[in-house]
């Protein structure tokens, strides 16, 4: 009997977690629809906002599963013949491994989804793909600038710490 | 152009995606997360704008379920999301 209660308790937790996420999505969707409504001077019925919210929540499932697949199996179509050849070789002769590791690394499973996977999601529409690609480049540029700033800061800090060390060394020689 | 106030937060998007991953080891990079938040926001805004256009075309004072149902096929991928004849997306600054 206790096991049953525990099981349903866990289920309850999962259900209420899911509901909380749905509520958060609903809030965000509501805000966005409000913006559009006031921008265009056309209000939305509550039902419609709820429907968009439900739709978005369901779409997340599709996106998540697609992204996971893209990361796990990023084999490019053009490499398929090579990939198959290597698979066959791998089964037949282990000595070939050294040559094949380069190719295996390229096709290895990834557990972290990256921006390339997100771009694949947008492939169905040219304008969306273009938009997402631009955003990716914006992000890449932002990241490069951040790295440059950090590097510069590190260099500045190093210069500051080197000077006292030199001074101490000079003192030692002097005495 | 400054992005409008609303938009999906990264932590919410992260939780939404994690909910549906089949492998517990699957993670999302920070940049990919920001892009996904952007993608979801565009998805919702497009749904809203298209529904409004539909309502305007039908000379209505309110956007209701019927209008959303009519624009749904294009949004969910049965047809291209943004047909080439459509106006390009408004640029939004990544928050």
Structure report:
With 175 residues, chain A is mainly alpha-helical. Chain A is 83% helix and 1% strand. In chain A, α2 crosses α5 (115-121). Chain A is extended, with a radius of gyration of 28 Å. In chain A, 17% of the residues are buried. By secondary structure, chain B is mostly helical. Chain B is built from three helices and one strand; from the N terminus they run αβαα. Chain B has helices at residues 10-18, 30-57, 65-75, and one strand at residues 27-28. The radius of gyration of chain B is 16 Å and the shape is elongated. The model of chain B has no long low-confidence stretch (mean pLDDT 82). At the A-B interface, α1, α2, β1, α5 and α6 of A face α1, β1, α2 and α3 of B. β1 (112-113) of chain A pairs parallel with β1 of chain B.
Give the secondary structure arrangement, pairings included:
The complex is a heterodimer of chains A (175) and B (95).
Chain A: H1 2-40, H2 46-72, H3 80-92, H4 97-106, E1 112-113, H5 115-121, H6 126-174
Helix pairs in contact in A: 1-2, 2-5, 5-6
Chain B: H1 10-18, E1 27-28, H2 30-57, H3 65-75
Please sum up the structure shown.
The complex is a heterodimer of chains A (175) and B (95). Chain A is built from six helices and one strand.
Number of strands of chain A: 1
Percent of residues in helices of chain B comes to 40-55%
| Protein structure class of chain B | mainly alpha
Q: What is the makeup of the main sheet of chain B?
A: none
Q: If you compute it from the alpha carbons, what radius of gyration of chain B comes out, rounded to the nearest whole angstrom?
A: 16 Å
Supply the key terms:
heterodimer, A: 175 residues, B: mainly alpha, 2% strand, elongated
């Amino acid at each position: 009997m206790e096991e049953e209660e525990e099981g349903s308790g866990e289920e309850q937790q999962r259900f209420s977690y899911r509901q909380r996420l749905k509520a958060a999505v609903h809030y965000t969707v509501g805000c966005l629809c409000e913006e559009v409504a006031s921008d265009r001077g056309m209000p939305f019925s509550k039902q419609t906002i709820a429907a968009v919210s439900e739709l978005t929540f369901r779409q997340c499932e599709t996106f998540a599963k697609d992204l996971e697949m893209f990361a796990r199996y990023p084999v490019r179509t053009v490499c398929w013949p090579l990939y198959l050849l290597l698979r066959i070789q791998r089964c037949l002769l282990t000595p070939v491994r050294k040559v094949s590791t380069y190719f295996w690394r390229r096709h290895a499973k990834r557990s972290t989804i990256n921006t390339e996977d997100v771009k694949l999601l947008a492939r169905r529409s040219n304008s969306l793909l273009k938009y997402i690609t631009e955003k990716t480049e914006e992000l890449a540029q932002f990241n490069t600038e951040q790295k440059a700033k950090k590097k510069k800061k590190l260099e500045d800090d190093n210069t500051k710490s080197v000077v006292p060390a030199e001074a101490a060394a000079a003192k030692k020689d002097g005495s | 152009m400054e992005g409008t106030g609303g938009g999906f937060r990264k932590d919410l998007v992260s939780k939404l995606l994690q909910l549906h991953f089949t492998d517990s080891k699957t993670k999302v990079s920070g940049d990919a997360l920001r892009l996904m938040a952007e993608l979801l926001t565009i998805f919702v805004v497009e749904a809203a704008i298209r529904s409004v256009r539909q309502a305007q075309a039908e000379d209505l004072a309110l956007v209701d379920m019927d209008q959303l149902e009519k624009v749904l096929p294009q949004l969910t991928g049965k047809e291209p999301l943004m047909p080439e004849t459509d106006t390009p997306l408004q640029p939004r600054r990544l928050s």
